[in-house]
Amino acid sequence: MRITRNVAGRRRRAAIVATTGLTATALLLAGCSDSSDDDSGSSDAAGGNITLTVADYGQFGYKEAGLFAEYHKLHPNITVKEDTTAEEKVYYPKLLQQLNSGSGLADVQGLEVGRIKELTDTKADQFADLSKVIDATDFVSWKAKQATTSSGALIGAGTDIGPMSLCYNTDLFKKAGLPTDRTEVAALVKGGWEDYIKLGEKFKAKAPAGTYFMDSASAMFNAVVSSSAKQYYDEDGKAIYKDSPAVQQGWALAAEAASKKLTQGVPQFGDPWAAALRKGTIATVACPAWMAGQISVNAGDGNKGKWDITSAPGGTAANWGGSFLGVPSSGKHVDEAIKLVAWLTAPEQQAAVFKAIGSFPSNTGAYDLPGVKDAKLPYFNDAPIGEIYAGEAKTIPEAVLGPKDATIKDTISTEINNMEQRGTDPDKAWDTAVQSIDKVIG
Description:
The structure is a single chain. Helices cover 42% and strands 13% of the residues. The protein has helices spanning 24-33, 43-46, 67-74, 88-101, 113-122, 143-146, 170-175, 182-188, 193-206, 217-226, 245-259, 271-279, 291-299, 334-344, 347-357, 385-393, 405-422, 426-441; strands spanning 50-57, 78-85, 108-112, 157-169, 212-214, 282-288, 307-311, 319-326, 360-361. Strands 1, 2, 3, 4, 5, 6, 7, 8 and 9 form a 9-stranded mixed β-sheet that branches.
């Protein structure tokens, strides 16, 4: 997965989105109409000043959207402070330690989709049940289900999702003799990721020296797997990654891309990846909604207008990414924290985050708001991302999640990187991945 926004490094940065915008008045109205204003019996009503802490990873976009400051205006006695860890793979072990010890937890904790199944199965009693304040029907159909326990408790409110698209460098496409119009590019890959590989071969035949069709085969692998409902586990909680058709397809395509030298072999989010984007050596990137911000920042102003966005290969929608906000039940300000989470995940606030950093809302009420449905990205030739991502989001299959999804995905991705960078034989790389995964999941 990440379906995950990248468990290995969710270092997303701001995307510049041209929108009609959300005004402070709209945010204030959203806050005033929220049930969180009924604070009878809370420290709010008593006039006491409190600080709510929010622990998260990467970039959730709340500071960038000014939401913590806005919440303080709505609730003058509440100050919100954020504690951000750069990488989720560092954040999550710490969260588990804190849950096990019952100390050090924030009032609100960010929860990664690749971990949510493990948390709902083993740690649900340590989180407040949000089902009474969060209406699951407000979100894409599968979002709340991911954070719901077998007994019906909701341990996390959905933040964003990662509907898939394809980002491509029009400058490199033109130099390789390929069409640059997003409709024409979509037609070239309409048959799926196999067509994507074929397009890569066409690109390579006439591409400028020192350029590559894709950044990494592991990114394509994640995109392929993310388009399937069954990925690493089945409905009974059994790990099926060895026999999963989606995993097998993704692995075969990744091995093919590596052997044909279609990939630069730079794992996403690292310094070499950023440098490659800046130098303009990468032609395509599998592009969940939040990826556009990464590309625009790392490629820099010098590449503005040289990128565009089109629909993902094939006719099956995919989701790569998505997080939640949970409230530890041991917190000092549980009621206030729940109200903050409800407000942050409401349509208006999710739309504001989308405007600030490009994270696409999971709350469907945001899709028709100004600044979402009409959103365009100037950096990507004014690609109509609101239209692209909203259409994709409505048809994403409900994925079966497992407790070690993130571990399996990361381990396989590492071995794909070894195929690209070290020339490791695909069979040997697969065997190494299986051995490593089985040591963890048993």
